[in-house]
Amino acid sequence: MQTSRRTRTGLFGVVLVLAMGLGAPAMALDPNAGVTRESGPFDLFRFGFSAYKKGRKDEAVEAYKYAAEKGHPGARWALANMYAYGDGVVENDYEAFKIYDDIARQGVEPGSQDTGYFVNALLSLATYYQKGIPGSPVQANLGAARQLYFQAASAFGVPEAQYRLGRMILEGEGGANDIQQAKKWLNRARVSGHPAAAAVLGNVVFEEGQTVRGLAFMTTALERSTVSDKVWIRAMQERAFSLADEADRRTAIALAQDMLAKGLN
Predict the structure, then answer these.
(1) What span, in angstroms and rounded, lies between the C-alpha atoms of 265 and 260?
(2) Would you give the DSSP letter of residue 158?
(3) What is the per-residue pLDDT for 2?
(4) DSSP summary character for residue 55
(5) Dihedrals phi, psi of 35, to nearest 5 degrees
(6) Cα(127)–Cα(118) distance, integer angstroms
(7) What pTM value is reported for the model?
């Protein structure tokens, strides 16, 4: 039931796959594009994104570099992702961490269009704190990870953060184990359409004796989960089904089918 840090950029529906070459010789922007290094950060960011999509990565690299230097949050976030993924530069998690940390420390105004970058930075930092970054000053700090997930889960209602927070509380990572609190956060993520949260919550309530409900949650989760999550969800579901009696299995399957037909989680 591992959740990779590679999933974090999928939270907002669109992943900006960007390449930036800091430290490389500066390249001239297209003189016909009407954008220069003196242009505003938004114009540079927009130009870079357009250039990248057209395959002109040299222009995209320079445009994003200048936009980031001028404080554009999207460009900084893209640079952090580039380091985290090794996209266009040597992978460097510590460099990524520092940029995410800077974004998070600057905060965001309520309702700001930069909220997505800020929340993504919180999740990325939390993921790094869960394991630490070998060979860097960043050590594993489960308490910090749990607090960051809580901030994203409570203040911004992000299902992925609710799921990860629920898992940490369930397993007693970074703080006390509290089954009821874990169930609360897992259920919030489940209601928002998070299959992995539905699977974990289903297993918890199954173990508590709510056999039919637990089996139904795991069954719907399996149907809606990503390819990577299907492996562990299927193993969890099959184990639970093997422990249930035939009547409960039949009822759970019928309930799951009804939930799927109605679009429920």
Answers:
(1) 7
(2) -
(3) 45
(4) T
(5) -125, 130
(6) 14
(7) 0.84
DSSP 8-state symbol, 136: S
Phi-psi region of 13 (alpha: psi -120 to 50; beta: other; left: phi over 0): left
Q: Among residues 124, 120, 34, which one has the least CA distance to residue 84?
A: 124
Residue 25 and residue 62: Cα distance in Å, rounded? 9
Both tokens of 240, joined, read 């639970």
Which one-letter amino acid corresponds to residue 4?
Answer: S
For residue 33, give both structure tokens.
Answer: 């594009």
Q: What is the pLDDT of residues 33-83, one digit of tens each?
A: 778 888 999 999 998 788 778 877 667 767 877 888 998 988 888 878 878
Residue 12 in tokens: 């907002």
Total residues belonging to the chain: 265
Look up residue 86 and give its two tokens.
Answer: 């090794």
